[in-house]
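Homework help board

Subject: predicted structure for assignment chain

Our instructor gave us this sequence and asked us to write out the predicted structure in token form, then describe one feature. I got the tokens but I'm not sure how to describe them. Can anyone check?
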Amino acid sequence: MKQLMLGNKAVARGFYEAGCCIVSSYPGTPSTEITEEAVKYDEIYCEWAPNEKVALEAAHGASLGGRRAACCMKHVGLNVAADPLFSISYIGTDTGLVLLVADDPGMHSSQNEQDSRHYAIAAKVPMLEPADSQEACDFTKQAFALSEQFHTPVIVRMVMRICHSQSVVDTCERVVPPQREYVKDQSRVMLPAQARKAHIRVEQRTKDLIDFAETSPLNRVDEGRDHSMGFITSSTCYQYVKELFGDTYPVLKIGMCNPLPVKKFQDFAASVHRVIVVEELDPILENHCRMLGIPVEGKSLFPMVGEFSQSLIASCLGMDAKTTQAIADPIPPRPPVMCAGCPHRGLFYTLKKNNCMVYGDIGCYTLGSFAPLNAMDLNVCMGASLSGMHGFNKARGPEYEHKTVGVIGDSTFVHSGMTGLADIVYNNSASTVIILDNSITGMTGHQQNPTTGYNIKGDPAAKIDLEALCRAMGVRRVRVVDPYDLKATDEAVKEELAADEPSVIISRRPCALLKNVRHQSPVQVDTDKCVGCKACMQIGCPAIAVRDKKARVDTTLCVGCDVCRQMCRFGALVRPDGRNA
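My token output:
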């Protein structure tokens, strides 16, 4: 049956059709929807893991248990999962193990633009690259087969445009291989003596995979009429090249980007007069060609950064970019902003007012760095706010301990923040940690986590008690505040910054967009009292504007959080009943 599917949904369909039984993931755009779609199949057990390392380890354990298993993450999540990946490559697999990683060229929702193909090369594991939704489904199934044929984990690399674009998928029935028996095998214990032997097996496996890549339909040549020029490309760039040139020029489409074939590249290059490599981000295919002595043009024509498009490729090749389709009118900028009623807003306003150095982390609260709050100094990666703040305070001394905070979300704290807190407590820096508990994993679209009390299906689950956890880790000063209460939040920040020992503030208020959150009536403006001072604009709430020198509240956005009302010295912002206190 043919269905129109997002690339991410197609991967989930591939899991289903391949007989995958276990999926463990950590949400991260643009990969999140894969697991959200997979959980709709009752035949697949799905879970949100605390982080990507745990997800891969759980999936590997399931594979060891004889069932096909997978884990999903975004590209920076692969950094977290790299530790087990390299060892699992040596250990090998008997039952299919697939790691789905989604890269983000253009950094639409990421802090960097790394190219995950490097990980496949470094870990010496095969990697497949789909170029549309049909291939996303097919390559996922092929990945399980390859995993079992060559006894290796297999990475499927998606990119944002494949994840979030739609094309037709011809679906098939689910086929579940019999569960493999578990057989004890001491060679899987990666002591040095065993690891040395495993490395030899891995190198032989790579040679075998290269032979496979030479004839595999995963790598194919699209014939062209004009051999004056030929393209080597993959993933989204394949689509752009085909949309620009159709079947005019030959195209070597790479679907298995590691390990790469040799003869197939050489034969293709010999068939055309000029070879052009089109690939986003790093010159992986280009460098392979140069290593083989093939003269190619690649990054001498195309940029190393950002997403490609038909018009960009045309422009780089000296063609008239007007031959490509594009929106004629300029698109107005739409900077990201915290939602109206976001519980993080009051907290960041308080930190700015107290002139705090704020070591940030990854999540919705990263938006606190934008004007007018400008209340975040930097962020690095998941969990770095706490360990980074600790190091900063050790370097700067007691003066900065009393004006520096580390902010981290509830999901991020469980992901990789606990070890940072352990470092703070164990090494005794008077650092102030603020856990922004909005009762959900917010930025990736409202996924459950171990602190919410619900599992991936929304069923009740064990809930981590953040207060008890922090105390158990040795923090004596733990307090909870409601960030909608500016006075209480300000008192908490001042008191904990003044403390000469580690402390934790839990800023607790559910995300304003959660379906079960009930809001108050929108705030109204008493125009007779409003003097146009713009104090209410200091929190950057999208529901508030100033027109004709008077504040205006968009009642379709306002959730009645009352943060702005607490800031107005003139009582111009009132409740619907006229109260301003």
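Reply (TA_rk): Your tokens look well-formed. For the description, you could write something like this. The first strand starts at residue 2 and ends at 6. That's the kind of observation they're looking for.
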